[in-house]
Amino acid sequence: MITDQAPPAPDDRRWKALGVCLTAGFISLLDTSIVNVALPSMERGLGASEAAQSWVVSGYALTFGLALVPAGRLGDMRGRRQAFLCGLAVFTVASAACGLAPSASWLVLFRLIQGAAAGMVAPQTSGLIQQMFQGAERAKAFGRLGSVIGVSTATGPLAGGVLINAVGSDDGWRWVFFVNLPIGVAAFAAGLRLLPRFPASTGKREQFDPVGVLLLGSSVLALMLPLVQEQQWTGREKWALLPVAALLLGAFWAWERRQARRGAAPLVDLALFSLRSFTLGALISLSYFAGFTTVFFVFTLYLQNIVGYSALAAGVTVLPFAAASAIGAAVGARLVARFGRKLVVVGLSGVAIGLLGVVAAVQLVPGPEVGWAAALPLLVGGIGSGVAVSPNTTLTLTRVPVHRAGAAGGVLQTGQRVGSAAGIAVVGAVYFAHLANHGRPAAAIQLGLLTAVGIILIALLLAIADLRERHAHPEPEGNAEPVRGAEEGGTEERVGPSA
User: Fold this and answer.
1) CA 130, CA 123: separation in Å to the nearest integer?
2) Which end of the chain is least crowded, N or C, by CB within 10 Å?
3) What average pLDDT does range 77-97 have in this prediction?
4) Left (φ > 0), alpha (ψ -120 to 50) or beta: where does 400 sit?
5) 379: pLDDT confidence band, cut at 50, 70 and 90?
6) Cβ(401)–Cβ(489) under 8 Å?
């Protein structure tokens, strides 16, 4: 039986520990986008083929997504501090290995390891927040986590551009990985001193669920492979993996229900999905990341390959989005207890409006001045992103029982990784297909961005539907949604009337 009822750390120590978690989360999520502007440098300096470049990007996302739920469950069972520090150590060493890679094949291998290590770190952060904070402080901590999630992805192209511009295009790609070393070492040292030593369990230790790991891992692999390799695997045969993924996911669901009936510990407590806040928040997050992350993929490609921007100039162009995301997330963290899901609706609307403004900028100013023309729309979209991501993260995780926080965080971030892969596949296919068939770059990027807006509107409709449902069937004040098994440990807290 899992218990997390250790006394909280002193206030200053808890917030410092949160800083360690967010720092590690920042560099692991930064690596999902920082390499995008470094691909031309890899091609020149390492002779990386197009397929190798694709695996450098998609391989990281693949192993990241595969590791999230098992790593989250492992942290729930054996201790999140240990899992966090182990993952951070492997991530830092793998980053050094990536930077020293003598060939493209070695780089891909080390990149796969780096992604798996990032997947071990990520779910521990949400679990540690559940353990260290309660009530309004928990909402504030999740708000900071949401800020990191949004800002890290948006600042990746800028950070990569700055490094390549400073070091040079031949070896600049290596410093995209080396930059993780001082940060990773410092975060590891601080984590040893600051992260709380909560007891992992008392009495009988829960057993891991290897069958559940195999079924879930296989289903995620079958789902993500054709998405991350959409451009490299020609032909339609790859899409046959999608029904295979559905069958494996169904088998996983049946197995987990069997585990619960037998009284054994499941990999994912399916009772989590009886929480409307968790289920809806996870769906919104999946949909939003499918639209949000694709913007930086296709827009930075357009700026570099078509407009002629350098890696640094492309990164600076998306800086307004990143800076505004941080501001929006801070505002959202303060207001989530008061407005709840309404903030998510407002934020997603802002993102959609901002991206439509970028489409207009490309139409009206198709030349080198497009970066200046897109600055204001990106600023609007960035504020909306922060206001959406931060509250949605808070509302999705705040009522999850503490003893399932790691696995729940893993499920949420797995949805984000799958959404990102699916969005890049769909939007990338629209962009490249129009470019190849019609040779009109401005029209191709506009169609790609409009596709991203359409995906974000799905998330917006989900949030609006939830608001209407709550208006039609209001919940009593202070009434928490029940989760089976809550008696095993942990408390559920409501952060506001719309949580």
Assistant:
1) 11
2) N
3) 93
4) beta
5) very high
6) yes
Sign of CA dihedral 34, 40, 43, 48: positive
Tokens 């609706």 found at: 345
**What's the gap between Cα 227 and its chain centre?**
16
Q: What are the start-end ranges of the H helices in 133-266? A: 135-167, 172-178, 180-194, 210-228, 241-261
Answer whether residue 475 shows pLDDT above 60.
Answer: no
Question: CA 16 → CA 144, 148, 175, distances in Å?
Answer: 13, 15, 28
Q: How far apart are CA 76 and CA 208, in angstroms?
A: 11
How confident is the model over 362-385, as a mean pLDDT?
Answer: 90
Copy the structure tokens of residue 351.
């993102």
Burial of 351 (0-12, 13-18, 19+ CB in 10 A): buried
Tokens of 387: 């206001």
What the block records as the tokens of 254 is 């049946």
C-beta atoms surrounding 7 within 10 Å: 7
Closest CA to 326 of 274, 386, 377: 386
Residue 42: closest CA among 106, 87, 90, 135: 106
> What is the distance between the alpha carbons of residues 386 and 393, in angstroms, rounded to a whole number?
11
| CA–CA distance, 74 with 119 (Å, rounded to integer) | 12
pTM value is 0.78
Rounded Cα–Cα distance for residues 159 and 226 (Å): 29
Interval 160-180: pLDDT, tens: 888 888 887 778 889 999 999
pLDDT digits (tens, 9 = 90+) for 102-139: 998 899 999 999 999 999 998 898 888 888 887 778 87
Q: Map residue 400 onto helix, strand or coil.
A: coil
Q: Which residues contact 7 (CB under 8 A, 6 or more apart)?
A: none
One-letter identity of residue 485? G
pLDDT at 481: 44
